[in-house]
Design goal:
The structure is a single chain. With 206 residues, this protein is mainly alpha-helical. It is built from eight helices and no strands. The two termini are 20 Å apart. The protein has one domain (26-91, 103-188).
């Protein structure tokens, strides 16, 4: 056992994790990849539910749009199920460099994006109403409000789900290790056999 090969319990120590903030490691790459994978599945399921709700609303307001919304919901739901099955089939998450993402890495940044979308959507709706180019009948106003709600909801789910998972990646992975004995055993074996030679990453901290 060299200086890089330590028990998993050592690398998961909260004290070591706190002192090693900003350090890249195999475990932290796994945690981020696992969080991104879970967030992608949940985001696809969210889009599926979002499209299903649009289909329900469209059944009363625009029946011609229902088949498109239903098809979209079925496709996104199927993709989510495939991604979830692939995620569950892996014994341990990938330790490769996490995929680059333009999604906010903090919930506060995601909420800022949602607020900007909400302000922009409401601003456009008010501007159209004041310009006289849009009908101000109760039905038109209700339709506009529902449309703005769906736009804000879409961006809220799309931004908040990955941001929350990325921000809490380490905590979520620690919880998963503690609750899945098979995963923990695989990581314990990797921790004892990992050799950080030639400038490769250390196994921890988490």
């Amino acid at each position: 056992m060299n200086q890089y090969s330590r028990p998993l319990e050592y690398w998961m120590s909260p004290q070591l994790s706190s002192s090693g903030q900003g350090t890249t490691s195999i475990l932290r790459r796994m945690a981020l990849n696992d969080a991104q994978s879970r967030a992608t599945c949940l985001m696809m399921y969210f889009w599926c539910a979002w499209l299903a709700l649009i289909a329900v609303i469209s059944a009363f307001a625009a029946p011609d749009a229902v088949p498109y919304a239903v098809a979209g919901a079925l496709i996104t739901g199927a993709i989510a199920a495939v991604l979830q099955a692939r995620r569950r089939s892996r014994k341990v998450p990938s330790s490769s460099h996490p995929a680059s993402s333009r999604a906010p890495r903090r919930v506060s940044g995601a909420w800022t994006g949602v607020a900007l979308v909400a302000l922009g959507s409401c601003g456009i709706m008010v501007a159209l109403g004041l310009s006289g180019e849009a009908s101000l009948s109760p039905g038109s106003v209700a339709g506009a409000v529902i449309g703005v709600f769906f736009v804000i909801a879409f961006f809220a789910g799309t931004l908040l789900i990955p941001a929350w998972h990325i921000e809490n990646a380490t905590r979520l992975f620690r919880t998963r290790i503690e609750s899945e004995p098979e995963l923990r055993q695989s990581l314990e074996e990797l921790a004892l056999t990992h050799e950080g030679q030639g400038g490769s990453l250390q196994f921890g901290p988490l």
